[in-house]
Structure prediction request, 70 residues.
Amino acid sequence: MSEAKALAKKLAGKSSLAASIIKNSVNQGLNMNLGEALDFETKNFILVFTGDDRREGFSAFVEKRRPKFS
Prediction:
């Protein structure tokens, strides 16, 4: 149980948008062929990399600090 709590705490500090997209990708991807999955992944990549969390993540990396995702 402590491992589950540790994982939950770690995930809570990540981008909620990215976590949501990852969960959706896993669930949806099980029912797609390779071509559909690649198209789906491309759309999700664009969603994540055009949002505020991307800016915050890159800024935090450059400034050597923990990101503060929305």
Observations:
- The two ends are 28 Å apart (CA to CA).
- The mean pLDDT is 86.
- The first helix runs from residue 2 to 12.
- The chain has one domain: 2-62.
